[in-house]
Amino acid sequence: MKNKAFKRLIYGFLALFICISNFSFRIGDPVKRDSTGTGFKIKTIVIDPGHGGHDPGAYGSFSMEKNVTLAIGLKLQKAMQKELKDVNVIITRDNDQFVELHKRAEIANKNKGNIFLSIHCNSLASAHERVIVDYNKGRHGKKVPVYKTVSIPNRSGKGVLLLVYGFKRTGEQLEAIRENASILQEKNYKDYYSDSDDPTTAMVLNAYRDKYRKHSIHLADLINTEFTETDGRYSNGVKEQSLHVLANSGMPAVLIETGFINNSQEEEYLNSDEGQTEIVNSIIRAIKQYRREVEQTAP
Question: How far apart (Å, rounded) are the C-alpha atoms in residues 181 and 137?
Answer without folding.
Answer: 45
